[in-house]
Amino acid sequence: MKPVKFIISCLCVAAGVTSAEITLLPAGAETTWRYLESGAAPGENWNSSDFDDSGWKKGTAPLGYGKEGLGTVIRFGDDPANKPITAYFRKTFKVGPTEKHDFAELGLSATYDDGVAIYLNGKEVARDNLEAGKLTARSRATRVIRESSELSIKIPAARLKYGALNTIAVEVHQAGPTSSDLYFDLKLSGLEEGEKPVLDPYREGMRALQRGDAEEGSRLLSQMPQDHPEYARTMAMLGWQVYAEGLGEPKRGLPFVKKAYEVAPTDRQVVRSYIKTHVLSGVLFDPAAIARERKKDIAAEHKFLVTKPELREAKLVSRKDLEEDLDYLEHVLMKCFSYLELRPVDYQGALDAIRGSLDEETSLNQFRLQLAKLISLFCDGHARLASPPSQYMPRGYAPFVADSYKDRVYLVDGESFVDPKHPYVTSIDGRPIAEWLEVASYTVVKESPQWRLRQSLQMLGYVNYIRAELGLPAKETILLELESKNRKSSRKLEVEVARRPQREAEFPEGNSRRIGEVGYIRLPQMTGSSSFLAQLNQLMRQFKDTRGMIIDVRGNPGGSKNILLTLMPYFLKPGDPMRIIEFSAYRKPMELPKPMPDGFNMSSMSAQPVTSSHWKTEDQRKYIGDAIKAFKPTWVLPEGKFSDFYVLAFDSTMNPEAYYYEKPLIILQDSGSFSASDIFLGGFKGLPNTTLMGTASGGGNGWMDSYTLPKTGLEVVLCQTAKFRPSGEPFDGLGVPPDVVMEATPRDRMGKSDSVLDAALLRLAK
Predict the structure, then answer these.
(1) Those residues with Cβ within 8 angstroms of residue 498's Cβ, 6 or more apart along the chain or in another chain
(2) Strands 361-363 and 316-318, how do they pair?
């Protein structure tokens, strides 16, 4: 049996029930906790009973931020990109002296995000997702938790103090300062003498999966009653994650995903599991579709797929296994990939080129690289191989960061040019910089030139990989040919190869603030955190009297569309027609018994069909229906392979806190504005009193899903939607052009100035 990996943190596990359970501390709103939210160290012996926590705040459970259903929202300061790593919680309770013989064990159940350490009367009783050893306020969780994790343990009842105060102390640690959410809740129970806990199949099944016992976990979870609130999602997880992905037995998972689908046919997670289990089980596989005469001659445009540069050492995989993975990938492309028939890509020829290049045994890293190159052929900004380049590229990196300005490439070392007098590079190791960039783009999606250039400049740092592709030897130094700004002088400079990649300086710098009479909102990412959205509403109230507004989405890689829902109503005049942002069509996985339920929404806060209950009035539904009838995309979608069009649209009523801000708005953008940022910019493009300033956005938009290749376990991410602007043009491959073109200078990128922001402020001052 192969190793089993499960992601079960998305399911909030309820505390188990015992036959004679005595609740000492209930979970939820019945329990009030003292908490310290500042991130500072709480002091010596903070977890003991005699510690004075009277200066700490009080709040009912659950406590945290960025989650739904919180009893208390704790604060993290003014900077969402620099949140405290650790929050501390304490609760005192008393157990009467007569209860000493009432129970022999304690049952403790806690839900948390990301890492937790729990103490009873000063002694540690539980720890999860944290390093061993002494913890400090700066200790980070070892991994990011997407939703929440849960642990359930038993503690000897002798740990209690009878007839005196007891203290539960908890510290919850984040994986990093930009974490979008934090969560904590806890229940403590006593088990009566001689009583055994009644097995809760849900709790015990999840615990079995957590410890890697898939068979026992599956047996227990299959006993869940259908009316359990987590029944549908648990069956979906059981079918896909356990049987299909974990055990590699997808056909055993089919009955479970079918049960889930019957109960919750519009739940996103359920439908995803339903589709993916059917795909992996072979329901969508038609051997005749790929049992064709394969091309033996490699077309010129596919030759870059089959180069064999020296990569990191990796295990060897047989030709048979790799061909099976390629067949599987071909089926996924044929049945699930939205862009396959919308761009003239000879994907079959590309797959055949890779098949023909395989040896009897091929390095897994060589195969990784070939898949990454294959994916680059498609017009899908989100398509990628889940394995990052650092996993398979050879070591040896450039000791600089490359960027571009006015079609020239400059090199930066820290906060200065590699050579201030000669900042621009013309060749590396005797080969023109254009050749280096071409090789650097092999794994980058080709359609959007601005996105391709941005990503290629980042890949330029893998100097020994590019050397291998160019046929150059790996050396300990790099020979640079540099030239001056006016191109009148040049010099050669030899620099040492670095042991690790260099990082770009943060750009732009600074947080949301008032700049004179202008309100400035910095959006470094499109987070859906409820606390951040509340902060945006607060900023808009503070900026109500400003003479103008600037919203900065430069370098914003995307995320949730909730920010658009929050901000856009402020800039929509009450009574005006709805503002349509995008039209979307979902690629239907073909040949499934029930491929797409009516009204199913594949992405939170994404586009909705005309039948959706999201539209609250008949006027809204009529407006959306008429818009869909009139819409003409520039890409003709193959009949029968896509859903009806879904629409993302807003009006002024969709944020009840919004007022109409009628003064000028400038939005700053660049090629790093991607995904949900593309949608954000598309929403504001052409809006009255609004100017987009900067350079074209990245050009990537779409809902994607991942597919695990059955033999190698490599994960391929592909888009399942085709998304269009109201004009009919796609987002992917184009991006959103600015109204005023202005490129950030090298000094800007090094943090020494911000000419684009200065120009925006000057424009608003006129």
Answers:
(1) 396, 397, 398, 399
(2) antiparallel
Compute φ and ψ for 552, nearest 5 degrees. -110, 110
Residue type, 14: A
C-alpha separations of 85 from 37, 61, 88, 137, 506 in Å: 10, 20, 10, 7, 20
Question: Looking up tokens 């005006």, which residue turns up?
Answer: 576
Q: What confidence score (pLDDT) does residue 115 get?
A: 92
Residue predicted with more confidence, 85 or 601: 85
509 contact partners, CB below 8 Å, separation of at least 6: 751, 754
Size (the chain), residues: 766
Contact present, 700 and 415 (Cβ < 8 Å): no
Identify which of 212, 216, 144, 153 has the alpha carbon closest to the alpha carbon of residue 180: 144
Strands of the sheet with 384-385, listed across from one edge:
384-385, 715-719, 704-708
pLDDT at res. 174: 93
DSSP for 80-121 reads TTS--SEEEEEEEEEE-GGGTTTEEEEEEEEEEESEEEEEET
CB 393 within 8 A of CB 465: yes
Q: Determine the Cα angle at 198 with ends 193 and 200, to 5°.
A: 145
Q: Report pLDDT digits (tens) over 505-542.
A: 888 988 999 999 999 999 999 988 888 899 999 999 99
- The phi and psi torsions of 184 (rounded to 5 degrees) equal -150, 135
d(CA 208, CA 173): 25
* Bridge pairing between strands 424-428 and 401-405: unpaired
- Partners of 23 in the β-ladder: 189
Is 259 within 8 Å of 236 (Cβ atoms)?
no
**DSSP labels, 302-315:** GGGGG---------
Q: Smallest Cα–Cα separation from 63: which of 17, 25, 22, 113?
A: 113
Look-up: residue for tokens 């919180």?
Answer: 70
Q: Alpha carbon of 671 to those of 24, 324, 458, 683, 741: distances in Å?
A: 55, 37, 13, 17, 12
3-state DSSP assignment of residue 72: strand
With residue 760 as reference, give the H or E element that holds it.
Answer: helix 755-765
Instruction: Look at residue 14 and tell me whether its pLDDT is greater than 90.
Output: no
How far, in Å, are 29, 53, 118, 165, 494 from residue 50 at the CA level? 25, 9, 17, 9, 63
Confidence of residue 9 (pLDDT cuts 50, 70, 90): very low
* Phi and psi angles of residue 608, each rounded to the nearest 5 degrees, phi first: -125, 150
Beta bridge partners of 255: none
Contact 554, 89 (CB under 8 A): no
What is the C-alpha to C-alpha distance for residues 271 and 260, in angstroms, rounded to an integer? 8
Question: Among 632, 712, 610, 708, which residue's Cα sits nearest to residue 323?
Answer: 712
Residue 606 confidence (pLDDT) above 80: no
Going by DSSP bridges, is the β-strand pair 164-173/86-95 parallel, antiparallel, or unpaired? antiparallel
pLDDT for residue 193: 60
Q: Residue 1: is its pLDDT beyond 50?
A: no
Q: What is the mean pLDDT of residues 81-91?
A: 92
CA separation for the pair 437, 458 (Å, rounded): 10
- Alpha helical stretches, state H, 264-382: 268-281, 287-290, 319-336, 347-357, 364-375
pTM: 0.74
3-state secondary structure at position 705: strand
Q: How far is CA 127 from its chain centroid?
A: 26
- Strand ranges inside 448-524, DSSP E: 477-483, 490-496, 513-515, 518-522
The answer to whether 462 and 414 have CB atoms below 8 angstroms apart is no
Instruction: Give the Cα separation of 676 and 523 in Å (integer).
Output: 12
Looking at per-residue confidence, does 154 or 319 come out higher? 319
Q: How many angstroms separate the CA atoms of 577 and 558, rounded?
A: 27
Q: Cα–Cα distance between 34 and 56 in angstroms, integer?
A: 6
What is the pLDDT at residue 11? 46
Helix (H, G, I), strand (E, B) or coil at 594: coil
Cα three-residue angle 602-603-604, rounded to 5 degrees:
130
- HEC assignment per residue over 366-392: HHHHHHHHHHCCCCCCCCEECCCHHHC
DSSP 4: -
